[in-house]
Amino acid sequence: MQIICLDLEGVLVPEIWIEVSKRTGIQALARTTRDEPDYDKLMHARIALLAQHGLSLADIQNVIDGMGPMDGARAFLDDLRSRYQVLILSDTFYEFAQPLMRQLGWPTLLCHKLEVDAAGFVRRHVLRMPDPKRHAVNAMRGLNFQVIAAGDSYNDIGMLEAANAGFFIHAPAAITARFPQFAVTHNYAELTAAIDTAAQALRAG
């Protein structure tokens, strides 16, 4: 029995915070987990910037409403889900993700949540648990699933390490060079082929 675990931002949809940065002109919001491996530190900085510039949750949601999946992402995901069980493991927030999940056909998503005050401003991020992607993969393996995972950033490394097979897609060269143990794919066709080959090998093994 096999399950596919995928990151969301940078893999299936554009990076939300980069889009917010472009829309608001706040360059510092363009930093992602590709730039800062410590996700907790990154989120504290983001929330401080939102407060500094008076941006509410509704402002962020307005940006997200205008976003969509990457070209080919829905077809890629639909194909995978027709042949495998698929789980999206993300460091986004449920308050952000709903419009994107709708456009992707409502795949199962595990992520985090935000605390918002009465005026609609983000005051705190609540991580579901430390290193959640690694823990999710370990839990799936504990349920006797073989796990194949794909991601693009530092916060995906735990997931890739814990999986039976892990791949990069859309990842920057600086990250792939640092973790050469994971094969690199550049598009959905390559990742689909890599997943299918790994699945076949795991079944045979």
Explain the layout of strands and helices:
Blueprint: E1 2-6, H1 16-24, H2 39-53, H3 57-65, H4 73-83, E2 85-93, H5 94-103, E3 108-116, E4 122-126, H6 132-142, E5 146-151, H7 157-162, E6 165-169, H8 173-178, E7 183-185, H9 188-204
Parallel strand pairs: 1-2, 1-5, 2-3, 5-6, 6-7
Antiparallel strand pairs: 3-4
Helix pairs in contact: 3-5
Q: Please, could you describe this protein's structure?
A:
The model has no long low-confidence stretch (mean pLDDT 94). The chain contains 9 helices and 7 strands, in the order E-H-H-H-H-E-H-E-E-H-E-H-E-H-E-H. A hairpin with a 5-residue loop joins strand 3 (108-116) and strand 4. It has a domain at 2-13 and 72-92 and 103-111 and 129-204: HAD superfamily/HAD-like (Rossmann fold, 3-Layer(aba) Sandwich). With 205 residues, it is α/β, with parallel strands linked by helices. Helix 3 (57-65) packs parallel to helix 5. Strands 4-3-2-1-5-6-7 form a 7-stranded mixed β-sheet, sandwiched between helices.
Computed Rg = 17 Å
Q: Report the major sheet.
A: 7 strands, mixed
CATH superfamily placement of one domain: HAD superfamily/HAD-like
Low-confidence stretches: none
The CATH topology label of one domain is: Rossmann fold
Fraction in helix: 40-55%
Mean pLDDT: 94
